[in-house]
Every structure is written in structure tokens, then in C-alpha cells.
């Protein structure tokens, strides 16, 4: 079978799997993007996965639905084999650690036009009492579609010094075309659909799966968290390591796992520890040890007896060797007994600056990042938070006007804390002065100094593309087109890098504006970061470009 036919067949099989009521179409789509069909005969289908983790996940969760789809489509019982293709992994090298399975559950119906509705696990196999909790309402419609919008420039953005005029011949680094990851896709990829099902929420904390708004930026992390909550201690998600910048929802997911388990498996002991808190308790226990021998033992026992241990923000332990050793011992003790460990950090394990034996063990299970939220996700969070706030404050039928919601979503940075506090501020103002009819202009004035982006929130991807085009003398059609010559690839990578640094947008959104996919955008950023480490020419160009671009946003 030629490859075109094979791909066509695979698409039909994927569509069939997605159509099953017990499958979450968006997760199937996200997950199957990590698979490639290699061969198909009358009763045999061979697939390759990015890596071992994906392979074993597919074997556990998707081989049976694929066989079912094949049976439904052909009437024949197929054998489905999955192998690992290291080339595939290499092509997606930039996303090597973003290997995420999906919880095999249906999703809540999406709000019209929005892509931000929580995916939710079905009631887990309850080991104790615990009725399935009430389902909170799904987020209301957001406004769909890509918004070519103004986004903030981080206040800390380095502004360089080299003026454009001093760089008549832009520097070009050595170029190896074969090594370029470049998935050119001028046709926008179809939006992943979200299915529908009931979802749990937990009463013990406000941070639950039920009020976690899902978008492309966090769907996989959410799915993995759900999977862990449903089946704690099961490989391959033990340990689970969630990473991402501040305020993107790592703690929310960890607490949601904890709450879900506490509610559905009352016999299990879950322990959540913030690393800073863990460190101070450890220091305290070590000090008290001289006076009272049991104190250190008590400290350790508290964690050792956990069935599920969640340690948040482990980057905080960098350089704290003794505490890290304790974490590592606990980690080994618990995982060896099949107890679940969940860790989080603001960066991937290998970038934390800890001993290799730690980070390689921490990376041994599921490693997943949370990306900055897309505009639709932010909108979903604004809406959901406003609803939650008005419910908890007993504000009755209060709603936040859609233009105000959009204003906040568009202007807040990726840190959801900033977004939430903007909503609180607006609602508070409305209530305090009995001004439910506040206009978006008034909200703009109220929030004038609230957002961290400052004046550069008027910057867009197009502004950066324009600056890069004139700097490197390339045309827009080349910058976003299929060409892979060195003179085009390098400026394209720089432009993508700058978009990521200055606009704080998800890779997917950036990739789309360059007709590229998420992994190509990620790879571009990783390549430039690599060059920046020791290449003065590249550093100077980036500085010069940042200076030019900063003028656009003044
Ligand atoms: N997808 C989401 N849906 C709803 N609320 C969210 C979402 N993501 C984040 N939040 C909210 O944003 C706030 C910050 O999230 P959280 O504390 O989980 O971030 P974090 O990634 O752990 O940050 P840090 O690294 O600084 O600890 C919380 O109030 C959380 O509930």
C-alpha cells in the first residue's frame, strides 16, 4: 500500500475511533498525532510511536479501540502492533518531554465556539463510599477564532544595544538543512473537538478538576492528572512530573488530583507539600533532632506513609542538597511500593540544576508541560471565574459583559493569577459602586496599571514578522512559506523565538502564523536558545531586533 493510501486509511481509522461515545475526540486527536502508520495488510496494522512512553500508552489505551474501528470499517479482526520509531522522536525532538497520553474518557460538551471546556473523568472505581460529586456548569461560550491581538511584552525583556545600522550584513549561523525540524502546513489544522461526559468536582478545596478550564495549552497535562487521580500508582504515570511557568495551573492540577483521590478513595492517604514548606520543615526537624530524637523520624514518617505524595515547585530545592536527598529517598521508597508520586516545577527536570540521578528518576514516568493559555482558554477562565465568584458571593444573576471578558483575556499575561485578580477587581468595583453597567472603557481605566505587560501589549506577531523581514531582507511569503534554504530558515527561527519571548503566546498560536505546527515552533525556539548560549553574532542580532521591536510598542 502506498503511503498516501496508508495515511488515508489511518485517517479513516482515527475518525472512527474518535466517533465512539466512550472516546474523547480531542484527546484521540492529540494522542494519535504522536503515531504514524507504517504498514497495513488485510488483517495487520503496524504503527510507530514517538517513544516508549507513547507506545506503552497506546498499547494500554488505544489498541483495542483501533481494532474495534478496523472491525467496524472492514469486518475483519486486525492485529495491531506498535513499535517505536526513533526518527519520529528526533523529528519532534523539541517536544520530547511533552509526551502525553489522554485519559480515556469523554469530555464535557464544549461551549459554543469555545475550545475551553473541561475534560472530565468518569466516576473512578470507588474503593470507599463517595458518591460522584455534582457537576459544575460548563463554561459558557467564549469567542472562538484566532485573534491577531495585542499581547504584553514582559517587563524584564532584555533590550539590546546594537543598532540596526551597525549590522549591515545579518549574521547567519552554520546551517544543516537535514537537521531542521520544519513541518510546513499552510492549511490550518482542524480544531480538535471536545466530547461530552459528566465530571467530578471535590468539596475539600476550590482547586478541582471541575473548575479547571481546558484548552490546547493544558489538555494533556489535565488528562494525565485525571489518569493519575483515577489510578494512582500505576505506571507509566508514576511519577508524574508537571512543569510550566508560574501561574499556569500546576498547583491547581496537583490539588485537583489530591481532592479527587480524597473524595473517591477515602482509604488512601494523600500528602501535598509545597517545596518551600517542605524545606523549612526539614530544616526544623533536623535542628530539633538533637533535642528530641523522634522529631526527625516523625518528619520522615509523615511523608513515607503517604499513598500519594505531591511535591510542588521542586525547582525551589535546587542547591538544597540534604533536602533533595530526603525527597529522593522518599521518592524511591514510595515508588518502589507502587505509591504515586507527583512533582511539579517551573521547568523540565533536566533544567532544574539538580544531579542527573535525580532528574533522570524524576523523568522516568510521565513528563508534561503546561503552555501559556490561548486566548480562548483565558476567556473560558474569565467566564468561569466570574461565575464562580458571583455564586460564592451570592450575587444572583450577575454576569460580566462579553466585551469586558474579552478585554481582560486579551490584556492579561499568561499568568492566570493576574487574570483572576483583574476579574475580582472589576466585580468588586461593580458591586461597591453599584455599577453593574460598567463599560469596557471604564474597565480599561480601572485596570490601567494592572497588567504586567505594560505598553508593549500593543505588539503583535505581525509586528515581529515585519521587523524580522526588514532586518534580514526576506519577504513575508518566504518567512511563512515552505522554503527551507538557510537564508530563510534562520530568520524564521529568530522570528518565532522573538514571538515566544516577547508575546508569551502558546507555540500553537505562533506556529499557525508561520504556517507551521507546534513542534516546529518549539524546535525553532530551542534552536535559537542553543545558538544564544555561545554565539555572540546571534546574541547581537536578537538584541538589535528587540530594540527595534520595542519601538513598535511604545
Ligand atoms: N486552566 C485553569 N482553569 C482555571 N483556573 C486556573 C487554570 N490555570 C490556572 N488557574 C488558576 O490560576 C491560579 C494560579 O494557578 P496555580 O497556582 O495552579 O499556578 P502554578 O502553575 O502552580 O504557579 P506557581 O508555579 O507560581 O506555583 C490559581 O488560582 C488557579 O486556580
From TrEMBL:
Primary location recorded for the protein, binned into one broad class: cytoplasm
An example Gene Ontology molecular-function term: DNA replication origin binding
Gene Ontology biological process terms from the UniProt entry: DNA replication initiation; regulation of DNA replication
Gene3D superfamilies (alphabetical): 1.10.1750.10, 1.10.8.60, 3.30.300.180, P-loop containing nucleotide triphosphate hydrolases (3.40.50.300)
Boundaries of every AAA+ ATPase domain copy: 236-374
InterPro entries membership: AAA+_ATPase (IPR003593), Chromosome_initiator_DnaA (IPR001957), Chromosome_initiator_DnaA-like (IPR020591), DnaA_C (IPR013159), DnaA_dom (IPR013317), DnaA_N_dom (IPR024633), DnaA_N_sf (IPR038454), P-loop_NTPase (IPR027417)
Annotated spans, Domain I, interacts with DnaA modulators: 1-107
Region (Disordered) residue spans: 124-162
Residue ranges of every copy of the Chromosomal replication initiator DnaA C-terminal domain listed in the record: 460-528
Subcellular location: Cytoplasm
Gene Ontology CC, one term: plasma membrane
Segments for region (Domain IV, binds dsDNA): 431-554
Binding of ATP, residues: 247, 249-251
Membrane-spanning segments: none
UniProt keyword list: ATP-binding, Cytoplasm, DNA replication, DNA-binding, Lipid-binding, Nucleotide-binding
Family affiliation: Belongs to the DnaA family.
Function: Plays an essential role in the initiation and regulation of chromosomal replication. ATP-DnaA binds to the origin of replication (oriC) to initiate formation of the DNA replication initiation complex once per cell cycle. Binds the DnaA box (a 9 base pair repeat at the origin) and separates the double-stranded (ds)DNA. Forms a right-handed helical filament on oriC DNA; dsDNA binds to the exterior of the filament while single-stranded (ss)DNA is stabiized in the filament's interior.
Entry comment, domain topic: Domain I is involved in oligomerization and binding regulators, domain II is flexibile and of varying length in different bacteria, domain III forms the AAA+ region, while domain IV binds dsDNA.
Subunit-level organization: Oligomerizes as a right-handed, spiral filament on DNA at oriC.
PANTHER family: CHROMOSOMAL REPLICATION INITIATOR PROTEIN DNAA (PTHR30050:SF2)
Protein name: Chromosomal replication initiator protein DnaA
Organism: Adlercreutzia caecimuris B7
Protein encoded by which gene: dnaA
Amino acid at each position: 500500500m502506498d503511503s498516501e493510501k496508508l495515511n488515508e486509511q489511518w485517517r479513516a481509522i482515527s475518525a472512527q475511533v474518535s466517533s465512539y461515545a466512550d472516546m474523547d475526540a480531542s484527546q484521540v486527536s492529540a494522542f494519535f498525532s504522536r503515531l504514524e502508520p507504517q504498514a497495513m495488510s488485510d488483517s495487520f496494522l503496524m504503527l510507530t510511536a514517538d517513544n516508549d512512553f507513547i507506545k506503552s500508552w497506546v498499547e494500554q489505551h488505544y489498541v483495542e479501540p483501533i481494532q474495534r474501528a478496523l472491525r467496524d470499517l472492514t469486518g475483519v479482526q486486525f492485529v495491531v502492533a506498535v513499535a517505536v520509531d526513533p526518527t519520529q522522536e528526533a523529528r519532534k525532538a523539541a517536544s520530547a518531554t511533552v509526551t502525553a497520553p489522554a485519559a480515556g474518557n469523554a469530555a464535557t460538551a464544549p461551549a459554543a465556539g469555545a475550545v475551553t471546556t473541561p475534560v472530565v473523568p468518569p466516576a473512578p472505581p470507588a474503593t470507599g463510599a463517595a458518591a460522584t460529586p455534582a457537576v459544575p456548569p460548563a463554561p459558557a461560550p467564549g469567542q472562538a477564532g484566532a485573534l491577531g491581538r495585542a499581547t504584553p511584552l514582559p517587563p524584564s525583556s532584555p533590550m539590546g544595544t546594537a543598532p540596526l545600522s551597525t549590522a549591515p550584513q545579518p549574521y547567519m549561523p552554520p546551517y544543516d538543512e537535514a537537521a531542521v525540524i520544519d513541518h510546513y502546513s499552510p492549511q490550518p489544522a482542524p480544531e480538535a473537538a471536545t466530547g461530552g461526559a459528566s465530571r467530578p468536582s471535590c468539596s475539600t478545596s476550590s482547586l478541582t478538576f471541575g473548575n479547571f478550564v481546558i484548552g490546547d495549552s493544558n489538555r494533556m497535562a489535565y488528562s494525565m492528572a485525571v489518569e493519575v487521580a483515577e489510578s494512582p500508582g500505576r505506571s507509566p504515570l508514576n511519577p508524574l512530573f508537571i512543569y510550566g511557568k508560574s501561574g499556569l495551573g500546576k498547583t491547581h492540577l496537583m490539588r485537583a488530583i489530591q481532592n479527587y483521590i480524597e473524595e473517591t478513595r477515602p482509604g488512601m492517604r494523600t500528602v501535598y507539600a509545597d517545596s518551600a514548606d517542605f524545606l523549612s520543615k526539614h530544616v526544623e526537624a533536623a535542628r530539633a533532632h538533637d533535642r528530641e530524637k523522634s522529631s526527625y523520624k516523625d518528619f520522615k514518617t509523615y511523608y513515607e506513609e503517604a499513598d500519594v505524595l505531591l511535591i510542588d515547585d521542586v525547582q525551589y530545592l535546587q542547591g538544597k542538597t540534604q533536602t533533595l536527598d530526603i525527597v529522593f529517598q522518599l521518592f524511591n521508597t514510595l515508588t518502589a511500593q507502587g505509591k504515586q508520586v507527583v512533582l511539579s516545577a517551573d521547568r523540565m527536570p533536566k533544567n532544574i540544576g539538580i544531579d542527573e540521578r535525580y532528574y533522570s528518576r524524576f523523568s522516568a514516568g510521565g513528563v508534561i508541560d503546561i503552555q501559556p493559555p490561548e486566548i480562548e482558554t483565558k476567556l473560558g477562565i474569565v467566564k468561569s471565574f466570574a461565575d464562580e465568584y458571583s455564586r460564592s458571593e451570592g450575587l444572583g444573576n450577575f454576569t460580566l459583559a462579553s466585551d469586558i471578558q474579552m478585554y481582560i483575556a486579551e490584556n492579561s499575561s499568561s499568568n492566570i493569577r493576574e487574570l483572576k485578580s483583574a476579574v475580582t477587581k472589576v466585580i468588586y468595583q461593580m458591586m461597591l459602586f453599584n455599577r453593574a453597567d460598567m463599560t469596557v472603557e471604564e474597565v480599561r481605566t480601572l485596570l490601567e496599571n494592572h497588567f504586567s505587560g505594560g505598553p508593549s501589549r500593543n505588539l503583535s506577531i505581525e509586528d515581529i514578522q515585519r521587523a524580522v523581514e526588514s532586518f534580514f531582507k526576506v519577504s513575508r511569503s518566504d518567512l511563512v512559506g515552505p522554503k527551507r534554504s538557510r537564508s530563510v530558515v534562520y530568520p524564521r527561527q529568530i522570528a518565532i523565538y522573538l514571538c515566544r519571548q516577547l508575546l508569551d503566546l502558546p507555540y500553537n498560536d505562533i506556529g499557525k502564523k508561520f504556517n507551521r505546527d507546534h513542534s516546529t515552533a518549539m524546535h525553532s525556539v530551542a534552536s535559537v536558545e542553543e545558538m544564544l548560549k555561545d554565539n555572540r553574532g546571534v546574541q547581537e542580532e536578537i538584541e538589535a531586533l528587540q530594540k527595534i521591536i520595542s519601538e513598535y510598542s511604545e
